[in-house]
Amino acid sequence: MGSINRLAVLPLIVCALLGFAQDARAQGLAPELQVDLAIAALERAILAEDNGEILDRIDVLRELAPVLAGGELLYFEAAALAEQGEIDEAEHALTRFLSEVGQQSASYDEALSLMLDLSDLRAELATLDRGVAAHERHDYDEARRLLAPLSAKGHAEAQYRIGMMDYYGLGGSAGVRAAERLYRLAAEQGHARAQASLAALYYNQEDGLLDDDQVAHWYRLSAEQGDPMGQMGMGYAYFEGLGVPQSYEQAVQWYRRAAENGDVQGQLAMGSMYEEGLGVAIDLAEARRWYRMAADQGTYFAEEALVRLGQ
């Protein structure tokens, strides 16, 4: 969805809040500084296009001036929610805005345009759901047909899925470089699994992609979002010293996070670290515990390790 000129209506908010401040001052209150700071914070959030912060600032302004619970703030709220993909909430706020403020607002035309954009986005998300479902059932030709147009429009999940198909040559043949390009586009939008997949291309030095800093950078961004693949990747990075100082202790911390998220490779890694005493003291009982978790997921290597350690 395109960027929205929400600053265009900021002066209306400012005027309304200043009027509120004057009324409050007449009653012996002094909210002016709080109002000024809240307005400045909202403006910074808008300039930074930080939609989560925009919504937080709106909540603060409403606490300072309950009379403004509706009105122009609803447009800011709708626009921020729309950018976050929260379509139902955005439509609700926008409907209230058009009803309460309507053509008197300087942002009326933009609000109508946003309503149309939301309708288009709802249709695109329905197509995305069908494309993901096709991908999950291994109907790659259908998945590519549905997802490729959405990938071109900038949908991160579609970019990630098409990138994965490009990498494996599914539903067409594109290769590593095409996958790298799409993984990067999705990763730059914050898609955690795309970030981990991009890091993995550099970790495995696919098609001449040689950059250890890229390994650590993208694995970390993914890991910090709680993605087990990213957490395992950070473990690998610290284990081998790729883009970060080599540290078995740090590797164990990231392996543990992945393992606790149910990642079988993380559980195997934790078993190995305790068995070999890397980053932790040797503890065969703890090694068996982690290997048993992995074995419960049907992993042959874990079953082999348990036999080696005498169960």
Secondary structure layout:
Elements: H1 10-26, H2 32-47, H3 51-64, H4 73-83, H5 87-100, H6 108-136, H7 140-152, H8 156-168, H9 176-187, H10 192-203, H11 212-223, H12 228-240, H13 248-260, H14 264-276, H15 284-296, H16 300-308
Largest sheet: none
CATH-derived architecture of the largest domain: Alpha Horseshoe
CA(first)-CA(last) distance: 56 Å
Count up the domains: 4
How would you describe this structure to a colleague?
With 311 residues, the chain is mainly alpha-helical. It folds into four domains: 6-106, Serine Threonine Protein Phosphatase 5, Tetratricopeptide repeat (Alpha Horseshoe); 122-189, Alpha Horseshoe (Serine Threonine Protein Phosphatase 5, Tetratricopeptide repeat), CATH 1.25.40; 191-242, no CATH class; 262-311. 72% of the residues lie in helices and 0% in strands. It has helices spanning 10-26, 32-47, 51-64, 73-83, 87-100, 108-136, 140-152, 156-168, 176-187, 192-203, 212-223, 228-240, 248-260, 264-276, 284-296, 300-308. Helix 2 packs antiparallel against helix 3 (51-64) and helix 10 runs parallel beside helix 12. It starts with 9 loop residues before the first helix and ends with a helix.
Main features:
Serine Threonine Protein Phosphatase 5, Tetratricopeptide repeat, 311 residues, mainly alpha, disordered N terminus, single chain, globular
